[in-house]
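Exercise: predict the fold of this chain.
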Amino acid sequence: MARAGGDKRGSSGDRKRRREWLVSAESGFGGNGSEVPCYWECGRMLNVWIVEADRIVPGGSYRRDNIVPACRPCNLARSDNAFLTVDQIAERVAATTAKRGSLVPALAG
């Protein structure tokens, strides 16, 4: 069974280097090498173990010019909709929390 993202994700080493870059100061996302804020302004600080590479163009490549650091809830809330605003993403995360009592992968509809 093919995984979403397919071969675009690269090897485990590629993914690790991508996460390390996302939390680095070099990436320009406000990271300090240990932590970086979620790009979607939810207030979560992400370390290299929990940061996710959210693709700006859903389904596109994982090149540095097409990824931003995101927490899991915001990344799932945004899904494949490139046109959601920060406020709409926050509303989806809040709706999931209200419906489920926690942030789980299944999103509120």
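Check your answer against the key: Strands lie at 35-37, 45-47, 52-55, 67-70.
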